[in-house]
Amino acid sequence: xxxxxxxxxxxxxxxxxxxxxxxxxxxxxxxxxxxxxxxxxxxxxxxxxxxxxxxxxxxxxxxxxxxxxxxxxxxxxxxxxxxxxxxxxxxxxxxxxxxxxxxxxxxxxxxxxxxxxxxxxxxxxxxxxxxxxxxxxxxxxxxxxxxxxxxxxxxxxxxxxxxxxxxxxxxxxxxxxxxxxxxxxxxxxxxxxxxxxxxxxxxxxxxxxxxxxxxxxxxxxxxxxxxxxxxxxxxxxxxxxxxxxxxxxxxxxxxxxxxxxxxxxxxxxxxxxxxxxxxxxxxxxxxxxxxxxxxxxxxxxxxxxxxxxxxxxxxxxxxxxxxxxxxxxxxxxxxxxxxxxxxxxxxxxxxxxxxxxxxxxxxxxxxxxxxxxxxxxxxxxxxxxxxxxxxxxxxxxxxxxxxxxxxxxxxxxxxxxxxxxxxxxxxxxxxxxxxxxxxxxxxxxxxxxxxxxxxxxxxxxxxxxxxxxxxxxxxxxxxxxxxxxxxxxxxxxxxxxxxxxxxxxxxxxxxxxxxxxxxxxxxxxxxxxx
Length: 530
Ligand SMILES: Cc1cc2nc3c(=O)[nH]c(=O)nc-3n(C[C@H](O)[C@H](O)[C@H](O)COP(=O)(O)OP(=O)(O)OC[C@H]3O[C@@H](n4cnc5c(N)ncnc54)[C@H](O)[C@@H]3O)c2cc1C
Known about the structure:
This protein has helices spanning about 15-20, 40-45, 100-105, 115-125, 150-165, 195-205, 250-260, 270-275, 315-320, 405-425, 445-455, 505-525, and strands spanning about 1-10, 30-35, 60-65, 75, 125-130, 140-145, 180, 185-190, 190, 210, 215-225, 225-235, 235-250, 265, 280, 285-290, 295, 295-300, 335-340, 350-355, 370-375, 385, 400, 435-440, 460, 490. By secondary structure, the chain is of the alpha/beta class. It has 2 domains: about 1-65 and about 80-115 and about 195-290 and about 465-530, FAD/NAD(P)-binding domain (3-Layer(bba) Sandwich); about 150-180 and about 295-380 and about 405-455, Cholesterol Oxidase, domain 2. Flavin-adenine dinucleotide binds near residues 35 and 510.
């Protein structure tokens, strides 16, 4: 048994932030436990190589149950499993979501999480290449860069968006999100900048932070309603780490609810069905699962400056010597937030656009030069769930997203594909298009596009919401201080606490959550037990 003040479970986007911030106090002993290993793989460091991590030991490699509204297909859900977690696997796109998202969080029982409250945490974390301003920070640990070597055709995509009526966005991370702009990226000098780079490595020099890798946390240790530590397996050994102050779960939107349920915290009937003895009734655990569904419109192009054969030795050499060239690409290079019909309070579609063929998560190959114009549904109405498959901690959870359960969601996706066609038909992109590969010229009616969407829909790697935060909602799991309802000594601080998925990618919001969690924990640091 080891004893620490704080035990943090999961060294992902959130866990690395907390490990750093909580160990800033030299009198605090902090333990960070991670199931994955070190983050040395070139497929982590080289930006364009991130899909090479899929289905490897760097990936938890989840799939949904057959999804009822997308032809009963199982949908792939990759999750990072190394230091940095999903921030070591993700596509590095820096997007915060819109002020409205955080106002909705606050309105649903999370005081202190409105836009004015969270903006300082986005800014604190950031070292933005554009420098400090009313909306951006400089000098923070997270490097936010402009793309180092963008593809030529991506300029044409951007101009075509403008020609198709989408305004240029000055700063999609500022007060006005709508419009088209190049993505800003989590990179430093053309290399991925994960939260392990930003927060963990600098903190590992401190004597009061211990990091254990290759260790699967199996459950929480409880004494009545107080969480006293965690049990974890490392190789053949099982150990208990005692937390004199708190355990902080940062195991992500699938891992955190799994650990609560494995510890008997959840819906009693569902726990019993998985063979787990209920200890604390909290029926919201695992509910409210959300993710962003997306579809890709794919075009063959005459321009040769694409990511086709980007893994050739000359490109590897360029990246190796200068950290420049095609391999610095995040695949999606151009972002656009658009409203596809009047009367919407904010964009319903976010386009991810780039110079690559991207279908089936990059697994499907195309022998030639191509671009992708990918509409993503920003505010899905569907809600899904995560359950235990069994009481075995090594067993993957079951999940379903119910994507496209709501007709309005499908309506936006169809409109997104139609808008993709308008962009492709606009100058200066039009002259570079050889042909539409998918959905393909035969898909002309709404019914054709809907069928194509059901067949090819993917999830954009943003699962969240499964330990929902609220002081008042019935199915809340944590309160607005991120404390698990009804228990002492336990918080959750990661993407699982998001009440509603933000309108944008989820890494920056997760870092913001962890930055704020660190302040909440330090302000209310309980007296050590015993
Ligand atoms: C392929 C991909 C592309 C993405 N692209 C983008 C993007 O471009 N921009 C963006 O903003 N967002 C992106 N995201 C989403 C973003 O990275 C995530 O929302 C964010 O990383 C979630 O952070 P987290 O801390 O909640 O979870 P994670 O970062 O997943 O961290 C959870 C950690 O807990 C560990 N863990 C889990 N269970 C246990 C256990 N039982 N014991 C010990 N350790 C455990 C995991 O190994 C992991 O390290 C992408 C994600 C993926 C996977």
